[in-house]
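Quick note —
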Amino acid sequence: MKNIKYLISGLLLSSIWISCIYPPKQDLIANYETKQLEINQLYEYVNDITPDDKYFDIEFESNKKIFCFFVTIHRIDSLTGQSSYTSIVADGDYNRGFMGNYNLDIDSPSVDNLLNWLGWTRNELKTLKQKLDNANCISVEKGEGLRIAMTIGYKRVGLGMYFYNIFNQALSDSLKNKYNDGCRYIFYKDNVVLEFRGGAVGPQCF
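Predicted structure written out below.
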C-alpha cells in the first residue's frame, strides 16, 4: 500500500513539475500560427471523409501503432423516430468491453473492423495520419450529438493533453463565454478554442 501511495505521489509531483516548466498557451498558439494552413486542411479532410451519422476519436502513437480508436454510429428508428448511438468495440467482442480499442497495431483486423464501420479505406487512414503529422498533432475527434467543434490533439505533457477545438464558424459572444472559463478552455480567436484535459491526477487547469 505504501508503494502505491509513493507511486501516486511521484506521478502527481512529476505532473505538477512538468506543468510548471511547460508554457502551454504560448506553445499551442505558436504551433497554430505556424501550422494554421495544415490544421485547416486536416479539418476539411476529416469532414470530407466522415459520414454525418458516424463519429470517431483516434490518437496515433506512431506510424505502426494507434493509442486509441473509438467509433460511434448514430441511428434513427424509421418507425419511432427515436435517436440512438452505438459505440463499436474494435474486435467485436462486446463481452470484453472497450479495452480492445486501445494499443492497436495499425495493420490489425480490429482496425479494419473500425474502418469498415466508418466507411474508410486504409489509404484514408494513412492520409489522416500524414495530415496530422503535417499539422504537428497526434489525434482528432469528430464528436457526436450537439458537439459543434472538431477536437484536434496537439501533444501530451505529463498526464495531461492539449487540444485545439475548431468550430465551423466564428464563436458568438455566448459561446466565447462558455469556452473561456479560465480553466479547461481558453478562447483564442475567431473559431479556435484551446483546451487542456488533465488526466486522473495533477493540474486540471492551464
